[in-house]
Amino acid sequence: MSDILLVEDKDSLRRALRLTLEAAGYAVTEARDAREAGDRIATARYRLVLTDLRLPCGSGFDVLRAAQRASAETPVIVMTAYGSIDEAVQAMKEGAYDFLQKPVDSNHLLLLVERALEQARLRTENILLREEWARRYGFPRIIGESEAIKRAVAETQKVARTAATVLLLGESGTGKELFARAVHHLSERRDGPFVAVNCAAIPETLIESELFGHEKGAFTGAHERRPGKFELASGGTVFLDEVGELPLGAQAKLLRVIEERVVDRVGGRAPVPVDVRIVAATNRDLEEAVAHGEFRGDLFFRLAVFPVRIPPLRERGGDIALLARHFAAKFGRELRGREMSVSDDALRLLCAHRWPGNVRELVNAIERACILADRMVLRADDFAFLQRREEQIEDWREMDLSGSLAEAVERAARWVERRKIGEALRAHEGNKARAAESLGISYKTLLTKIKEHGL
């Protein structure tokens, strides 16, 4: 993706602007008129558009509107001749980021471009929660620009303002607790407690006591009355993580909490009223669990008033680089005192990895690489442990076959491709030309594949 689309009909000025931008490290694509600019916007993505307002075959307003139709996140800077300020102001009213007056000052141009790109970067990180809330409550931002994560964020924002029970669906490591906290802190209950419970981590014999509390003498070791998680969360939110692991007895009591807003303490004689909102999460198919008699159907429908599906990382491949840069900067500050970055070869390797552990696995990998690296830039060899992990799969039956058929087939194909290339390189003692010939592919294709697989 080019950084900047430059639209200017005067050849000398266009060339001067391109050289200025390229000298600052930006990749530039040129267009000579509004029609050509529209065609380029329709077929490619740009981080920023810089356009003159007076153009052949249309105007800068046409370019601005085309850019907005393609992506509302792309900033547009317009250039105007002296005496045409009114047009520039009108362009800003229609959504342009800012304007430059000709003759263009190079330093002003670069400063404006840098500011526009930084503002766009912050927008496309999809900050679900306002920054001051994140600082106050101590949780990270939800980062991503893929359609799948944007959809989950939008649904979370809408349901948070209501009192509806929310069921978060997603694989382990996708960030379900982060979304649960978002529901709480965007709701009217934000000043109340947020109590998280991992239902899978509590022994079955203790789960009812943990959730609903117990009276003194209710069982051996119950030396005093103890409130449960629902009482502790009164006025706030209870987050039931891995709710699909609840035993059937606790499911019946949970249903009573939802329907009657009371809890029955273990050993108690009278119900205790509670005022809580329930957010539940699971990585199981609860409908299938209902069909097998492992989960109550009436409870499932009570929990799934508003289901939100959190996408796995394999469905948000475009977010991997964004997440990697964010966490490299974060762990760099924590571990080294300043932000670390990620090289292009490392990003290619990360984007090619299957990430069965989703965002949690990616975060752990970035932190480990930040510890191992001897530079402030993470490179592919800092992630050698990921390659070794893939190499340890000797039998196709050990592969991760989760997700759709297409996703499983893609992972299987990558595994076969990596093994075949590795075997060919070993058979020909590292001679790439002979290895490419034996594989029936071109030398250039082999080099590309070697980079993709980090071989």
From TrEMBL:
CDD domains: AAA (cd00009)
Organism of origin: Pyrinomonas methylaliphatogenes
Domain Response regulatory: 3-117
Signal peptide: none
Record PROSITE patterns: RESPONSE_REGULATORY, SIGMA54_INTERACT_1, SIGMA54_INTERACT_2, SIGMA54_INTERACT_3, SIGMA54_INTERACT_4
GO biological process, one term: phosphorelay signal transduction system
Transcription among keywords: yes
Ranges where the Sigma-54 factor interaction domain occurs: 142-371
Entry-annotated residues carrying 4-aspartylphosphate: D52
Record keyword Transcription present: yes
One Pfam family this sequence matches: Response_reg
Highest taxon in the source lineage: Bacteria
Alphabetic keyword roster: ATP-binding, DNA-binding, Nucleotide-binding, Phosphoprotein, Transcription, Transcription regulation, Two-component regulatory system
Molecular function terms from GO: ATP binding; sequence-specific DNA binding
InterPro entries assigned: AAA+_ATPase, AAA_lid_NorR, CheY-like_superfamily, Homeodomain-like_sf, HTH_Fis, P-loop_NTPase, Sig_transdc_resp-reg_receiver, Sigma_54_int
Name of this chain's protein: Two component, sigma54 specific, transcriptional regulator, Fis family
